[in-house]
Design goal:
Layout (H helix, E strand, L loop, with lengths): L1 H12 L4 H19 L9 H6 L4 H26 L2 H21 L5 H25 L9 H18 L3 H8 L6 H17 L2 H6 L5 H10 L3 H14 L2 H24 L1
Helix pairs in contact: 2-4, 2-12, 4-9, 4-11, 4-12, 5-7, 5-9, 6-13, 7-8
Amino acid sequence: MLNNIFDFFLNAVAQHHLGFYIAGALGVILMGISKSGFGAGIGFLAVPLVATQSNINVALALMLPILMAIDLVGIRVFLKRADFTILKLVLPAGLMGIFLGIIFFKQITPQLLSLSIGIFTLLFLVHRLWLATHVTEKAHNPLTFFARVMAMTSGFTSFIAHNGGPPLTAYMLTQRLDALTYTATLGVFFTAINLSKWIPYSYLGLLNWNEIVASIVLMPLVPLGVFLGFFAAKHIPQKIYYRIVYVAMFCAGVKMIYDGIQ
């Protein structure tokens, strides 16, 4: 029995080449840093990086167990520091975005999705730059309608491409939270979002044992990425922290627009 399981595991591992695992390892570390410390930043690279060594469906299947592992590593800290007033506002809308993702998954092209998110990301950054130079007060404005629209968009894009960070970040950055509260609130939101993907992904035929085994092989890198992310969030000054987030979002926007045009 054990020999059969071991043989099955080895055969599943052998389905992917070395380049795939190197890309997957980098993707896991980047996703861990992003999820635990830099919100919507460099984690956007993970799925495209893996897809260069396979395809988008394989990349989505590989990264879902990784995302869940990252969520579980950080969830205790997330729950202690999250802003639950914001979560009550955005979580229902995020789950509605998942439902829309299920409906439109086979209709929308990856290029159109990438182009749309990229344009939105850059427009948001222009808006934030304008606010930084024209608005000085530190009001905590709920922006209820805006929050729900951004959360629904995040749920949708997270389902389609594991890239739900930028839309919700557009709302979260208006709340001017401290770095750890910002990170924890996003962490709880996306833990719920990622949990809700498993059954729809199985229904759509995205999950299979080869990708699940590959995810298990890469799991030991999850704590490294999470540690690096929390270390950065805790030790980098808040102004510099948000500047890094903005730079990462700019890079994400340019990359997604480029992918959409290609």
